Amino acid sequence: MRHARYSWCVDNEVGHEIAEALGVLLRRTTRAQLHRQLTEGMGEGVDEVTYPVLSALARTGPRSAAELAPDVGIDRSGVTRRASRLEAAGLVRREADPEDRRAQLLVLTEQGRHTVAELRGRLAAHITASLADWPPGEAEAFARRLRRFTAEGPFA
Amino acid sequence: MRHARYSWCVDNEVGHEIAEALGVLLRRTTRAQLHRQLTEGMGEGVDEVTYPVLSALARTGPRSAAELAPDVGIDRSGVTRRASRLEAAGLVRREADPEDRRAQLLVLTEQGRHTVAELRGRLAAHITASLADWPPGEAEAFARRLRRFTAEGPFA
DNA sequence: AGTGATGCGTGCGCCGCGCACGCTTCTGAC
DNA sequence: GTCAGAAGCGTGCGCGGCGCACGCATCACT
C-alpha cells in the first residue's frame, strides 16, 4: 500500500474507509428500534416514516407536498399520504393558498413545531452525550467537515 | 444563543449540526437513482436491496443468513430471500455446513467477490474524486473521525 | 430411543411506494 | 367572454419488501 505503483489504491483508501463507515452508519440509523426509542412518549402521529416530512417542513417553512417531495426523496403522492397522517395527528394543517385555490400548503401547527423541536433536541442530546469525551474542538471540527461533506461532497 | 442561560443549547449545537447533516446525508444516500448509477453495467442480481447482504458477506466471510441478519438490520427471512436472489444471479452459493447439516452457509462465488470489489471501488472512487480539492490531510482526518464516530458514537 | 431445541425456507398479511386517473382551478389565446 | 390546455391535488391500484409464524429437518441431551 505504500509503494508508489499502488498510488491509486492509496488515493482511494480514504474513499474506501469513508464508504465503509457510511455503510455501517446507514444501516445503524435506519434501524426502527432507534426511531422507536427517540419518538418515545410522542403522539401517535410521528414515526420514522412521517418524520422526514415534518422535519423538511420545519426546515423550509410552509410548502406544498409537490415542492416537499424532492427534498424528502419520495414521490409527491407519498408526501401527501404522510402529510395526511400528520394532519390527523394535529401536527400539520392544510391551508389553501390564497393566491392559487388549487394549491394546498402544508403548515406546521403549534404542536407540530413543538414536536419537531423536542425530537431534534433529543437527537442532538443523544449525539452530544456520546461525543462528550472527544478532545475539545474535535467535535466541532468533525461537524464542520461533515457539513461540508454533505453540502459539496459526493452526494450533492 | 450566546447567553449563559441557554448554555444547554450551545452545548447541543454540535449535536444539532451533526444531526442535520446526517439527516440530509441519509436522504441523499438512500436515493434509488444513485444506486442505479453505481450498479450500472453489473449483472441483474445486485441492486440496492441485495447489496447490503453481499457487502456484509464480503466483510465477515461465509456466514448463515441468521448470523447476517443483525448486521444487515432486517429479519432473518429477508436475508434468506435476498440471498436467494443473489444465488440465482450466481453471486452467492449455498453450502451445507459439514459440522451441522441444518445450517446453510452463504458463500461468495468468484463472480460475487469480483462484483463487490468492483462496486466498492466505484463508490470509493466516487467519494475520493469529490474530495480531491480538500486540503491535504483533511480527508484522512475526516475519515478517521467518521470511523470513530460510527464505532463508538451515538449509533453503536 | 425420545423429547425439546435449533436452523432453515416459505406462506401470509400488512404497509409504503410509484404510476396514472379524475377533479378542480388557473392561464393564455381567440 | 369563452374555451382548450396546463397545473395542482388527492386517491385507486398493482407491486414489492418486510416481519411473523408455521412446517420440516437436524442436533443435543437425557
UniProtKB/TrEMBL annotation, chains A, B:
SUPFAM superfamilies in the record: Winged helix' DNA-binding domain (SSF46785)
A Pfam short name: MarR_2
InterPro entries with a match to the protein in the record: ArsR-like_HTH, AsnC-type_HTH_dom, HTH_MarR-typ, MarR/SlyA-like, WH-like_DNA-bd_sf, WH_DNA-bd_sf
Domain (HTH marR-type) ranges: 19-151
Protein name from the UniProt record: HTH marR-type domain-containing protein
Organism: Streptomyces crystallinus
Organism placement in taxonomy: Bacteria, Bacillati, Actinomycetota, Actinomycetes, Kitasatosporales
